[in-house]
């Protein structure tokens, strides 16, 4: 429902712009579907975690094992650091873009945890 609500906001923006400019709805669908790609990417990226199950079909990302190690270390860091936990929760609830987890300080700390765990 969160994704649908975000898509609805994008659609409202397009409809409002067209109503003010008295434009028809011609061409709205392709513009809308292009515009929502940034809305769709974060929740679909979470679905990649299903590849941890051997019976999941589809093409696994080449860096999937590294992503899983990073995710596990990020979870451990979030358990120790309330600030990282907050950011992770916001990303998981689609409030904050996933790029927030690529903050250099977070990545450095996660890499340190990964190195420590072998």
List keywords for this structure.
67% helix, 118 residues, single chain, 6 helices, 2 domains, mainly alpha
Please explain how this structure is put together:
This protein is mainly alpha-helical. The chain has two domains: 34 residues; 69 residues, no CATH class. The model has no long low-confidence stretch (mean pLDDT 90).
From the N-terminal CA to the C-terminal CA, the straight-line distance is: 39 Å
The total of helices stands at 6
Please tally the β strands and state the result: 0
Oligomeric state of the chains? single chain
* pLDDT averaged over residues: 90
Principal-axis shape: elongated
**What structural class do the secondary elements suggest?**
mainly alpha
- Give the topology string: H per helix, E per strand: HHHHHH
Segments where pLDDT lies below 50 for 5+ residues? none
What percent of residues are in strands? Answer: under 5%
How many strands, what sense, and barrel or not for the largest sheet? Answer: none
* Percent in helix: 55-70%
Number of domains: 2
- Could you tell me the radius of gyration in angstroms? 19 Å
Task: Kindly summarize this structure in a few lines.
The chain has 118 residues and is mainly alpha-helical.
């Amino acid at each position: 429902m969160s994704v649908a609500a975000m898509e609805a906001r994008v659609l409202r923006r397009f409809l409002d712009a067209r109503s003010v400019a008295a434009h028809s709805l011609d061409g709205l669908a392709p513009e809308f579907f292009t515009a929502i790609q940034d809305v769709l990417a974060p929740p679909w990226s979470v679905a990649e975690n299903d590849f941890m199950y051997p019976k999941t079909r589809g093409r696994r990302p080449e860096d999937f094992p590294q992503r899983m190690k990073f995710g596990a270390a990020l979870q451990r860091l979030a358990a120790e650091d309330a600030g990282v936990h907050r950011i992770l929760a916001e990303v998981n609830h689609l409030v904050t873009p996933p790029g927030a987890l690529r903050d250099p300080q977070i990545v450095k700390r996660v890499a340190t945890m990964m190195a420590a765990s072998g």
